Structure formats: C-alpha cells, structure tokens
Amino acid sequence: MKLIIAIIRENQLDQVREALIEAGISRITVSHVAGHGRSKTEEIYRGQIVVPNLVPNARLEIAVNDEFVDATCNAIINATKANDSGMIGSGKIFITHLEECIRLRTGETGGEAI
Asked: 58, exposed or middle or buried, with CB in 10 Å at 0-12, 13-18, 19+?
C-alpha cells in the first residue's frame, strides 16, 4: 500500500480529478494549502523588490494498493501537463509507504480497507 500526495495548482484540480476517475481512482482527499517552491521570483513594487506571498495550491492524498501507483501518478502527470505550458510551480508528487489502513465502519484492514 502506498500514500500518494500530490501538490498541484488549484486551477488544475478538476482536470486531475477527472483523470483519476478515468483511471479507476475514485477515492481522494483534497485540502487547500499554500506554499512556494524553490523558484526565486521577485516582483518590483514601487521601486522595492518584494517576494510574493504564498501561492494557493491543492493537496491531494490518495491511498492506493501497489498495483495502482503507476496509474495514479500517470493520471496526475498527464492531467497537469495538458495545460501546463511548462510553467514554473507545476507541483510535486510524493509516494510513501502506507503502513496500515483501517476502515472505521467495517473494521477492514490493509488493502481491503482502501
């Protein structure tokens, strides 16, 4: 079991969600977050160099069985590249091992609970 965490631009959320559904992934958790990456963009405002505030993003958390990792990542990558135009700040995908999963309602554990 893996936990896939994807940080994407908020305007890409709908297309990523649709791509995940097409790939057979229907259970996701979405949080609205803010942050910035390593891009060193600066703006000049009234003659002063100003570092922009945190950028709003969406954080997707998707627990999958091992056989769905590639399909999930490919769906996210393809959906975000569709209208990306090579922009800086496209996001990231993190994949971590998921130790255990328990469905509260039924008590199922492991891959069955996902």
From this structure: buried
Say if residues 28 and 114 touch (Cβ distance below 8 Å).
no
* C-alpha span between 95 and 45 (Å, rounded): 39
Beta carbons of 68 and 81 less than 8 angstroms apart: no
**Torsion region of 21: left, alpha or beta (phi above 0 gives left; psi -120 to 50 gives alpha):** alpha
- What is the value of pTM for the model shown? 0.83
Residue type, 11: N
What are the chain's domains? 2-112 (3.30.70.120)
Which residue in the block uniquely carries the two structure tokens 């891959």? 111
- Residue 47 pLDDT level (bands cut at 50, 70, 90): confident
